[in-house]
Amino acid sequence: MKKITALLAALIERASAAYAGSELRLTVPRGATGRYEISVHAPGTRNATLSTQSVRYVRSGDRGTVAVTVS
Predict the structure, then answer these.
(1) Domains (range + CATH), the chain
(2) Is the pLDDT of residue 25 over 50?
(3) Mean local confidence (pLDDT), 8-22
(4) Cut 0.70: pTM above it
(5) Which residue has the higher pLDDT, 53 or 7?
(6) In the predicted model, is pLDDT for residue 2 greater than 70?
(7) Are 38 and 26 in contact (CB under 8 A)?
(8) CA geometry: angle at 28 spanning 4 and 33, to 5°?
(9) CA distances from 67 to 1, 9, 40 (A)
């Protein structure tokens, strides 16, 4: 699994993003509540999960964006 850098619309400390093949996995630590947009350069990804839950993932070329609410 390759580690990638996430560009965050709002800063989330200790958030991580990783991808392998067509899957993008996002993890946000507990306590980081709020609404976030996470945009990543992850060529070939088709699906995204946030802490093991499927989330909506919008691709544009080699970039993808996930908008999530963490509670």
Answers:
(1) 2-70 (2.60.390.10)
(2) yes
(3) 67
(4) no
(5) 53
(6) no
(7) yes
(8) 140
(9) 23, 10, 12
